[in-house]
Structures are given as C-alpha cells and as structure tokens.
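FYI - complex with flavin mononucleotide, inputs then prediction.
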Amino acid sequence: MRVLVVNGSPKGKNSITYQTIRFLQKKFPNDEFKVLHVGAQIGLYARDMSDACEAVKGADMLLFAYPVYTFLAPSQLHQFIRLLKEQDIDLSGKYVTQITTSKHFYDMTAHSYVEENCRDMGMNVLRGFSADMDDLLTKKGQLQVITYWNYVNHIIQQERAETIGYDEGKGNIPVKEKDAKYRVVVVTDCARENERLRQMIMDFRKAFPYESHVINLQEHEIKGGCLGCFHCAIDGTCVYQDGFSDLLRNKIQRADSIVYAFSIKDHSMGELFKRYDDRQFCNGHRSVTMGKPTAYLIDGEFSRESNLQLVLEGRSQIGGNFLASIATNEGVGADSTKTCADKLAYALEHRIQVNENFYGVGGKKIFRDLVYEMQGMMQADHRFYKQHRLYDFPQKKIGRILFMKAVGATLRMPSEKNPIQAKMSEGMLMPYEQIINGK
Ligand SMILES: Cc1cc2nc3c(=O)[nH]c(=O)nc-3n(C[C@H](O)[C@H](O)[C@H](O)COP(=O)(O)O)c2cc1C
C-alpha cells in the first residue's frame, strides 16, 4: 500500500505522534510510507501546493498523523486541509485514515473534524486510531497499533477484492456449515411484520461464518423498566423475578459477541430496547462483556441520527467492546450486512480490542471515582473494580510525579543557562528511539 502521511504536528520529526508512524514503517516494510511534514512546514505549502497535490494523487491512502490540539487538530493542519480542499483535485474513493496522540481529552471531536472534511472531498474514510501520548512506550500500546494497521490493511484488501469481483459467493455459506468456534447472539426487538429488519438479520447470518442465534426481546417477558431501587447494588440481584437475569447472564452475556438489530424509533432504539438496557443496571458499573467485539444492524437513516451515533459509540467505549461495524440499509457510504459480518468475524479471530477515546477514558474515570466514593453501597461494583485493578488513581504514580517535579525545576531555570531545556524535545523522544530502532 502506498501511504501518504500528512504529519500535522508543528514539531515535525520531533513529534511524538510521528514516532508511531516510524514504528509502523519498521513493522510493515511492505507498505510504502511517504511523509509530508505539513505542520512544521505550513509556510511552504501555503506558497505552493503542487508537490503536495502530486503526492496525494499518487497515494492509495492518506494517513493524517497529528496531536489533538484544543478539541480539534493544530491550526497548521486546519490550514493544510483548507489548502487541499481549494486544489479541487479528484479524491473520490481514495482511502483515508488518521492516527493521533493526546491525553484523550476530546480526541473524538478531532477525529470527527478530519473525517467530515475528508468526506467533503469524497474520500473513503476508515476509522482512525487514537493513542495516549505514552502508549507506544508500552507493549500493549505497540500491539494495539500493529493490530490496527493489520485491520486497515485487511479492510482495504477485502473491499478491493469485492469491487473487482474476487469475493463472489464467499458470503453464501449455508447455515448448516457454520463454524462453532465462536458463538454470536443477535439481540433484536424485530416485530413480526418488520420485513426490512428481518431481511438484514437473515443476510447477516448467511454471510457470517460462525454460529449465530437470535434472541428476540418480543418473545421474552421483561416485566417492567428499572425502578432505580438499588436493590442490586449489593450482589447484583434484581427485585423483578421475570427471567430477565437468566436471559441476560446465561444466554446473552456468555456469547463471544453481541450484535444488536433494530429499527430506529423516535431517534432511539425504541422503548423495548430501552427497557432491556435499563434493566442491565443489575450489572452496576461493571463492564461484564469487556473485550468482546460488538456490531449493529440498523434499519433506518442512521446517518441522520447524530445523538444515537454518539450513544452507540459511547456504549461500546464504556463497555470495552470493539465496535466492529454498524450496518444500515441506507445504501451508499454505509456498511452492508455482508461487510458487517466480515468485520465482526475478523475482530473475533484477531481479538481486536476497543481503541479508547474520550468517551471511554473520560467515562471510566467518572465511574471509578463514583464507585470508590460509594463503595459502602455499591459493593458488587467495588469488588469488581478491585479485582480488575480499575482504581488507577494518579496519586499512586509517585515515580512519575517526582520525575515531573524535576522537569519543572529545570524549566524554571532561565533558558540561556539551561542546556537541558534546549534538548528537551529530543530527550523526550529517546525512549521512542529505543523502541523503534533498539538504540
Ligand atoms: C496547544 C495544545 C493543545 C492541546 N490540546 C489537547 C486536547 O485538547 N486534548 C488532549 O488530549 N491533548 C491535548 N494536547 C496534548 C497533545 O495532544 C499531546 O501532547 C500530543 O501527544 C503531542 O503530540 P506531538 O508531539 O505529535 O505534537 C494539547 C497540546 C498542546 C500543545
């Protein structure tokens, strides 16, 4: 793949985000990475965009790499995007994705900003990767970015195969030949007369290579909505005795993945699904399906439902479930049920984990503090948080606090007498150099 990296950091080669690109270059020698340091050299591009245009035209994919700056991207990248749009070159169908580093504070708005502008230019947008600025220094962070890049490669290969007809018939595995390696449940509220949604579920199950079972909430008794009585806070048991707990804990949560299928109703998943969701308060603030990927089959104009989009993304972030795909029957631009089946199968096979953004990181901090404070009452949550080491309070990181005090002391010294300050950017990159080049 010929990848054009648009490095939007004003720090250019000294950018932390750019180290992730260098890491990928090392790990994926078959992909060709060309880099434009637009953040550091924006003056040059403001004068002349011709080289940039040639580079863009010659690439299979654009990769925006930048730090999140105050909710969005650095102003230099905003300027570059404006300049690119003004060139009026045909970018329709060109793949584009993004990698950011930040502290996850409003990283999702930055990603949306880049996605929206790329859609304006007709590009084929793939979900980006949002890393914490220290992630590349950990084995987990390195693995996550490798998994992400493999995923990007897979999606592009798959889509190309489909457009040139290599994939004919692959999705039509008869139901009896399904592989039982993974077991997926499709939870739906599909009414008898809802042919559109029923068709989507059938198409998905046909295309999906593993076992799938449908649980239709219409066929199960859920006596009422959550009463907010906190009876469940001690040990997770609900005051209702209607079989919901058995359905949820033994039939749904045990699956390797939960796929939700619904028709949009009143800008939501509808009241039956809402009842189902609220009754899950018996799980308190515990992400009991953490690590399992999820997907949605949606009948309706989901692209117009910005609030519902946010809710679904937030749920997967907080639940720790990689959102493999949202298939809709809107047509152009949306995942088809077949693409959804393929993406979910890939996510299961490669154990893809959710890439946390502000929704996940921020939301979990709120829950962490809440459960800690209310541990006397939320006893089931407290046990779970201790067991899963979710109390990651900053005051536990004594070493880092002391190190930053030392950095602060050097910054206070006047810069002409301060050799350390001049070398600060390079110094910060030393641990990355070790990871990329083993130096
Ligand atoms: C002007 C400025 C604004 C920033 N705004 C945000 C922000 O809104 N959210 C966040 O999580 N981090 C923010 N950061 C932190 C950077 O995103 C983070 O340090 C990033 O890893 C730097 O990457 P770079 O070295 O590639 O430039 C900001 C940093 C600066 C200097």
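Residues 9, 11, 15-18, 67-71, 101-107, 133 surround flavin mononucleotide (CB under 6 Å). DSSP finds 16 helices and eleven strands in the chain.
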